[in-house]
Amino acid sequence: MTQTVVSIEHLQKHFGKFQALKDITFDVQAGEVFGFIGPNGAGKSTTIRVLLGILKASGGTAQIFNQDVWSKAVTIHNRLAYVPGDVYLWPNLTGGEMIDFLLKLNHQKHSAKTDALIKEFELDPKKKSRTYSKGNRQKVALIAAFSTDADLYIFDEPTSGLDPLMEEIFQKHVLALKQQGKSVLLSSHILSEVERMCDRIGIIRAGEIVETGTLEEMRQLTRTQITVETQVDVAPIAQLAGVHGFTADQSVDNKATFAVDTAQVGAVMSDLAQRGIVTLQSTPPTLEDLFMRYYNSEGAEGHDTK
């Protein structure tokens, strides 16, 4: 039986008259990577701060390890590791001293794994923290987190400031945690990062969860992009059910680009085959397609970016 590690139901958070979280409901299961996505200002960090016991919820419930996140925060913290999107360090401590301090806070010790991570992330641990760039400050927190033996890892925009190579290393270690049966809550607006690693995804918009599910389930809600050239007239394809944005190529006869609803792909392909396919390029729906479904000009009403 699958164990629920994080459980949030109808979570709300008010700051005076401003309602930052209106209705947040999702869960994270043992051994899964859950992607929590949305633009800056949608409520991702507020949700995570409630989970960490930093903010008290105005309504709803939030539990980690079947314990209330506010009243049992200290107990819960003994079993989790957390990396924020902007890491602040004591300026006069070296990077190595900061890593050891963060590990000690979690009742952990500097290990051979810590040394390997320092080397892999290319961090100079002897430099004072005040000399570090934003990316290097992130590395300190990531090294400490990945050195920690926790049951739940919470990452809030963790790769902010990292170069693409370091992002790849981060992704590798998250996937390793998954293989070890650890649970990961990953908040991010880098869709390729989420698409590569996450088992399930929750999309937050203006303080509300608007969609949750696996990427494959969500792909059923989006459209496949097709560019095709046929031997005979391709124009009638535009009239088929499920075809959108049909655009004929002005420089090549019988060539066009269009989008097709997932449910209608088979029927459209059958019709194209009868027309004699010369070339065909099919691009499956991506997480970005789904994301933009909720954040285009039509879906942006009520979105607060404060």
Number of helices: 10
What's the arrangement of strands in the largest beta sheet?
Answer: 6-7-8-3-9-10
Order of helices and strands: EEEHEEHEHHHEHEHEEHEEEHEH
Distance between the termini: 41 Å
Detail the poorly predicted runs.
297-306
Give Rg in angstroms.
Answer: 23 Å
- What is the architecture of the largest domain at the second tier of CATH? 3-Layer(aba) Sandwich
CATH superfamily of the largest domain: P-loop containing nucleotide triphosphate hydrolases
Give the C-level CATH assignment of the largest domain: Alpha Beta
Mean pLDDT: 90
Please name the CATH topology of the largest domain.
Answer: Rossmann fold
User: Main sheet?
Assistant: 6 strands, mixed
| Total individual domains | 2
Quaternary structure classification: single chain
Shape: elongated
Structural class call reads alpha/beta
Helix content range: 25-40%
Structure report:
The structure is a single chain. The protein has helices at 44-51, 73-77, 95-105, 112-120, 134-147, 164-179, 191-197, 215-219, 265-274, 287-295, and strands at residues 4-15, 18-29, 33-37, 59-64, 67-68, 80-83, 152-156, 183-188, 200-205, 208-214, 223-230, 243-248, 255-261, 277-283. The chain is α/β, with parallel strands linked by helices. Helix 3 (95-105) packs parallel to helix 5 (134-147) and helix 4 (112-120) runs antiparallel to helix 5. A hairpin with a 2-residue loop joins strand 1 and strand 2. The strands form three sheets. The protein has a six-stranded mixed beta sheet, with helices on both faces. A four-stranded antiparallel beta sheet has the order 2-1-4-5, covered by helices on one side. Helices cover 31% and strands 30% of the residues. It has two domains: 4-217, P-loop containing nucleotide triphosphate hydrolases (Rossmann fold, 3-Layer(aba) Sandwich), CATH 3.40.50.300; 223-284, Alpha-Beta Plaits.
